[in-house]
Every structure is written in structure tokens, then in C-alpha cells.
Amino acid sequence: MANIQAVVFDLYGTLIYLADETKPYIRLFADVGLRTPEEFRRGRRIALSEDFDNLDGLVRRIKPTIQINLDQYQQELENEIASASLYPETKKVLGKLRDQKIKLGLISNLASPYKEPFFDLGLNDYFDEVLFSCDSGLRKPNPIIYQKMIDMLGCNPAQVLMTGDKIHADVDGPKSIGMNTVHLDRINNSPCSISTLEGIFQYL
């Protein structure tokens, strides 16, 4: 493997997890009348690639004329976000990479409210560059978002290693533009994946 100058991480399922995952957006989409897979995909695309201050803004973007009480969804959303926790090795690994002068980047597909734990848990202190889909308007596995991160880090693809828990978004996508990748599989670890973040050091 080429000399790795930077490591790019996914966020949820990689650095942090939701201890109380209720997926309020899925129920909200159903309750505002999204019925077909195509409608759900459109709702998800809007939620992940546009910035909304609150659920009301999202609902009005998806279904402008609908009237719905969002209090329960908002409370569930707040509870879910409040349950965000670091994986045990997250900060140790990030700190070790920083000590080794490895640049750190993050690319995450998420809706605006889910950015909060990244800052509340102190992860922003470790990263050189961050791309949230809701801010950039781009989502993994669109090759443009990986190239944008590479440019921000000042590297070429062969100098960057990306890791995350989704094969299509964190392995296949970045690999398509020449990045090095390793799949993080905490449950069913295979010879082609790592079971914890500490496994990335064998790829540097």
C-alpha cells in the first residue's frame, strides 16, 4: 500500500453509535404520506442533502400542504441524538493518528440534527476536514464528495485510506476513484475487514 498521508472516517457506526435508535424520520415519512420506495428515497435524499433548522422545515419541503403535529417526532429525535456515544477506542485511535502526523477527514451522510453529537462528544478537535452531506449537498457514494475531501486534505487518492461500516459508501465509493479502503465490520468480522478502529494501523 502507498504511503498513507490521511485517513478519512465515516461517523455513525464507525466512530459513534446511537444507543437508543428509534429512527423517527422513517415513521415521519410514512405519516406524512410517503408510500412508495421512490417517495421514501426522495424524502431521504432531501433530508440528507439539504440543511433544515427543524423538522417543520423538512416536512414543508417534502409535503408543503400537510398539517401534522411534530412534537412526538421532535422528542424522539432529541432522545435519539442524546443517546449518541463513542465507541471505546475512538478517541484513542484518533489521538494516535494525530500523534503520527496523519491528516484526518470525515465524510458523513446525515440529516442536520445528527451533526450535534460530533461536536458534543469532542470529535471536532481531532479532524482537519469535515464534510456533512446536509451541508455539502453531496452524499456518499457520489465520487465527487470523496474527491472534494481529497482536495481539501491536499492529497492524491492513493495517499488516503477510508474506513467505515457501509460497503457501498465507505469502500466501493472511495475505491472507485483510487482511494485505499478498509471495511469496518464490528459484528461479523471477515478476513477482508477490521473489527475495531485499531485495525486500521495495519494498513498505514
Describe, in plain words, how this protein is organized in 3D.
The protein is an alpha/beta fold. The chain folds into 2 domains: 130 residues, Rossmann fold (3-Layer(aba) Sandwich); 59 residues, no CATH class. It has a 6-stranded parallel sheet, sandwiched between helices. A two-stranded antiparallel sheet has the order 2-3. β6, α9 and β7 form a beta-alpha-beta unit. α1 packs antiparallel against α4. It is globular. It starts with 5 loop residues before the first strand and ends in a 10-residue tail after the last strand.
The CATH topology of the largest domain: Rossmann fold
Q: How much helical structure, as a percent, in the residues?
A: 25-40%
In total, how many beta strands?
A: 8
What is the beta-strand fraction? 15-25%
The CATH architecture of the largest domain can be named as: 3-Layer(aba) Sandwich
| Helix and strand sequence | EEHHHHEHEHEHHEHEE
Sum up the overall morphology in one term.
globular
How many helices? 9
Strand order of the largest sheet: 5-4-1-6-7-8
Rg estimate, integer Å = 18 Å
The structural domain count equals 2
CATH superfamily of the largest domain: HAD superfamily/HAD-like
Please state the average pLDDT score. 95
Q: What structural class results from the helix and strand content?
A: alpha/beta
| Largest sheet data | 6 strands, parallel
Distance between the termini: 8 Å
CATH secondary-structure class of the largest domain? Alpha Beta
**Sequence stretches where pLDDT stays below 50 over 5 or more residues:** none
